[in-house]
Amino acid sequence: MALVVFYEKPGCSNNTRQKQLLSRSGHDVVALDIRAQGWTPQALRPFFAGLPVAQWFNRAAPRVKSGAVVPEAMGEEDALAEMCLDPLLIRRPLMESGGRRMAGFDEAAVAGWIGLAPAFEPIPETCPRSDGVCSVPGR
Questions:
Q1: Which of the chain's termini has less CB crowding within 10 Å, N or C?
Q2: Residue range 83-107: average pLDDT?
Q3: Which DSSP category does 65 fall into?
Q4: Residue 33 CA, distance from chain mean position
Q5: Do residues 116 and 22 lie in contact, with contact meaning Cβ atoms separated by under 8 Å?
Q6: Which CATH class is domain 3-113?
Q7: Which residue in the list 12, 84, 127, 134 is annotated as catalytic?
Q8: Where are the domains of the chain?
């Protein structure tokens, strides 16, 4: 199967379920903290190939929810610059495997890319908590 580098926010329940699904599907997952990567626009841009700028953003990010960042009003350069300064703005997870990169966890797209075992229940891509705060203490 595939080796998947999985950039996550540690403690995120959705990212945990997504990693479990990848592992159950026979993939090796290397999980890295998305906040600790020292992103540059050049490193980040390939994850968003084919997506409009507004879909690059984590809708549960505090600055998006407060209206301080409006994804629909951002151009590519400004969006990448903001995400490099505040990685919580980045749609998660970011994944790379076999030279391909992807943002978000669209089960059908991931299944077509590297293969997935059937999930017991759909895994939401957004935070299930209305406040967007991680449920793990200290995170």
A1: C
A2: 97
A3: H
A4: 11
A5: yes
A6: alpha beta
A7: 12
A8: 3-113
Closest CA relative to residue 23, chosen from 94, 119, 102 = 119
Say how far residue 84 (Cα) sits from the centre of its chain.
14
Residue 38 falls in which region: left (phi positive, over 0), alpha (psi -120 to 50) or beta: left
pTM of the model: 0.84
| 127 carries an active-site annotation | no
Residue 14 structure tokens: 């959705």
- pLDDT score of 118: 80
Instruction: Look at residue 139 and tell me whether its pLDDT is greater than 50.
Output: no
Total residue count of the chain as it appears in this document? 139
DSSP 32-55: EEGGGS---HHHHGGGGTTS-GGG
Q: What is the residue type of 12?
A: C
> What gap in Å lies between CA 101 and CA 112, rounded to an integer?
13
Distances (CA, A) of 67 to 45, 59, 80, 86, 135: 23, 10, 18, 15, 23
Residue 111 phi/psi, 5-degree rounding, is: -60, -40
Residues 97-115: what's their mean pLDDT?
A: 96
Instruction: Tell me what the mean pLDDT of segment 96-118 comes to.
Output: 95
